[in-house]
Amino acid sequence: MKIVKLTKKNLTSVIKQAKHYLEKDGLVVFPSDTVYGLAANALSKTAIQKLYQFKDRPVNQSVAIAVANLNSAKQYFRINTVQQSLLETLLPGPFTVVLESRHKAITQLEAEDQTLGMRIPDYFFTKALSQSIDSPYTATSANLHNKGPHYSITALLNSLSYKKKQLLDLIIDYGSLPHNQPSTIINLTGNKIAMLRQGDYLFKPVLNQKVISVEQTQLLAKQLLEKYLDQADNKALVMILQGDLGTGKTVFTQGLGHHLGINNIVSPTYVVYYEYLTQNPLIKKLHHFDLYQLESPEDFEPLAIDKLLIPNNLLVFEWGEKLGSIFSLIKNRNTLIILIKINELTRNSREFAVYQLS
Amino acid sequence: MKILAIDTSCDETSVAITQGQKVISNVLFSQIKIHAPFGGVFPSLAKREHLTKIKPAVSLALKRAGLIINKIEAIAVTFGPGLPPALEVGVNFAKALSQKYQRPLIPVDHLEGHIYSGITLNQMGKPKRQFRFPLLALIVSGGHTQLVLMNNHINYKVVGQTLDDACGEALDKAGRLMGLGYPGGPIIERLAKSGNINQYSLPIPMLQHQSLDFSFSGLKTAFKRLIYSLDEKQKLEAIPDLCASFQQAVFTSLLIKLEKAIKQFQPKLIVVGGGVSANKELRKQLRTLLAKKIPVYFPPLKKLTGDNAAMIGVVAYFKYQKGIYLTHSETLDRLPRTNLDNYIN
After folding, report:
1. Is the residue at A145 inside a domain?
2. What is this enzyme's catalytic activity, as reactions (chain B) (predicted)?
């Protein structure tokens, strides 16, 4: 392990040393616009294995790579014109952008869904480093997995065992870095979640109704609830709402809530779901889900939805079309499943198509 | 009094050590949104492993504070509002600590935390901050939008709140509608700088409404219709203007209601908290509105604007002073939809 002090004057010689070690599959600790980072050649399998060994990071966890500019980024990432224009505004800057990988960098660095994180930092040292080497390098923080990042080399070294220190080849010490926040992660890839396709299951049409106001939407919610309420005593009631942003999914759920004596329902988008105790003997709890933020099938696991599929529970799912991967689980429990599709006709009118799974 | 505070209300596992209003350490292990480590874990709910993170977070918070757990005098925890299974992890861990070490347990509402985040101090007791009542708090985050009046510590009256979406959620959803990825708030803030706020006219939510409540779902729908009316090329060219116009509509709505509330309650101090309070443009417009007539406090660090345990510890200190804590912690349960109005004492 070698430590060099970076000053205003010796940038060229320090860059030369960093280049030397990176090309020999070494690990280099470097200063950045956010925290001290750990660089390894992103095209070398040996170097990347060493990196994961150092970080104690589970092998399935992804690591972002730093590139010189958008042009060289295109070798490693799929970037469409919309993304291109956005990236031109944001970068270089303190952002990690998640994009589709071209699998040219070591694929171990990718996430399970084959996306890869990209950084183009706005910092004199990283700019100079990217210009001097041809391959991209990892831009992960120089700390162990599940430990906080470091703003000084002393703090980093104090946190490492002798064995860990031996894995580092070069440390570039630029003193104490300003305590900037770690980079903001922006995900520019689409959803990887399985969609619920109505055609795969036997849904029987129940009714089709046009509404022209919030009041009418909530009246419809009340009528539907009354229709199925009796069955809630021996089954979990599941309502799956499908409809674009702003079609009235939360408004509909508020209507269900009013009928159950709940008047403080708001959008649960941020926390994924809220639960409410009701005053009703047949439905004791309302679980209001919003799957808008969910991006992969694993996202369902911590929500433990199966535990909620018991009698006297009403589960309402906004963006219920994302239930694809766990729909058979819901179906095979003791549940009554109602599918509600909301279609925006004009600014104020909506069409509600209601189906029941038979 | 040294307090160990835990917040697991959503997707961040946070543990802090506080002493009075001072933050000694504030550890944040997060996945989604803005605080993720350099090249860290990518957004995914499945990785919200509060269970595996809470122990390392407690150890690190103690280590950074240079303390052993026996020196901690009370445990504080967020019991709501939030994602039920996430809250449960923090509450159960706090209960276990409180029982094991025989320390009082102080339950804190996450929103109290956002109010008090504006008066947190660093280890040296900086910046200088003084309470004045009546105090009017504006909470603006991804999950909440509220105006809260306080006539004393730990005494809240919710005078206005969102009827549907939170303001941060509205910004995030607008970001997605424009294809800007997630989270939308900070990206819109950056792109809005080069945009024209008057290029598109959007409805200012609840403008004619006499109450102090907010609503962002109508604005969201109007914005969606606007976006859908543009073709791909037009949209691309218009993105900075779209960002500026939308952000301004959200902020104007906040400012109008705040101004109305000030007239009604004549507060001596304004505090603003929550993730959206990190937005520099919002801070600027709030300062202009208040024009130095009423002091306004924002969280002193960006880290304190979002979800964090330091603010929970600071609230807990004031609660303890008022005798609000549990000695038999078994009775505490998570409460996913809490209401500040219920704590009047």
Report:
1. yes
2. L-threonylcarbamoyladenylate + adenosine(37) in tRNA = N(6)-L-threonylcarbamoyladenosine(37) in tRNA + AMP + H(+)
The tokens describing A148, both together, are 């906080």
| Distance (Å, whole) CA A65 – CA A40 | 9
In a domain? residue A192: no
DSSP state of A296: S
In three-state secondary structure terms, A152 is coil
Pair A146, A214 in one domain: no
- The Cα A37–Cα A172 span in angstroms is 10
The H or E element spanning position A227 is: helix A214-229
Around B273, how many Cα atoms within 13 Å sit in the side-chain half-sphere? 25
Q: Which of residues 142-171 of B touch A (CB under 8 A)?
A: 142-143, 162-166, 168-169
**Beta-bridge partners for A237:** A314, A336
User: Element (H or E) spanning B187, and its range?
Assistant: helix B184-192
How far, in Å, CA of B188 to CA of B179, rounded?
A: 11
| Dihedral angle sign, alpha carbons of residues A241, A246, A252, A254 | positive
- Mutate: best of A137, A192, A293, partner B, most B CBs <10 A: A293
Please judge whether A264 and B81 are an interchain contact, meaning their C-beta atoms are less than 8 angstroms apart. no
In Å, how far is A90's CA from the nearest CA of chain B?
8
CB atoms within 10 A of CB B106: 27
Question: Which positions of chain B have pLDDT values less than 70?
Answer: 30-49, 182, 343-345
- Look at chain B and count its residues: 345
- Which tokens in the block code for residue B307? 């979800």
Range of the domain at A242: 202-357
Among the listed residues A350, A158, A324, the one whose alpha carbon sits nearest the alpha carbon of residue A250 = A350
Residue B305 token pair: 């604007």
Nearest-by-CA chain A residue for B81: A274
Task: Name the residue among B279, B320, B321 with its Cα closest to residue B299.
Answer: B279
C-alpha dist (Å) from residue B92 to A257, B54, B72, B105, B212: 29, 11, 18, 11, 36
In a shared domain, residues A168 and A227: no
**The tokens 């694929």 sit on which residue?**
A107
**DSSP secondary structure of A289-303:** EEGGG--SGGGGGGG
pTM over 0.80: no
Task: Express the helix, strand and coil content of chain A in percent, nearest 5 each.
Answer: 35, 25, 40
Q: How confident is the model at residue A304 (pLDDT cuts 50, 70, 90)?
A: confident
With contact defined as beta carbons under 8 Å apart, do B19 and B310 qualify? Answer: no
Main-chain dihedrals φ then ψ at residue B19, nearest 5 degrees: -140, 110
Neighbours of B199 (CB within 10 A): 12
Among residues B219, B246, B213, which one has the least CA distance to residue B146? B213
Does residue B273 contact residue B267 with C-beta atoms inside 8 Å?
A: no
CB contact at 8 A, B166 and A238: no
Nearest CA in chain B to A262: B337
Residues A92-139: pLDDT tens digits?
988 888 899 999 999 989 887 788 999 998 899 999 999 999 899 998
Structural domains in chain B, sorted by start:
2-127+302-342 (3.30.420.40), 135-297 (3.30.420.40)
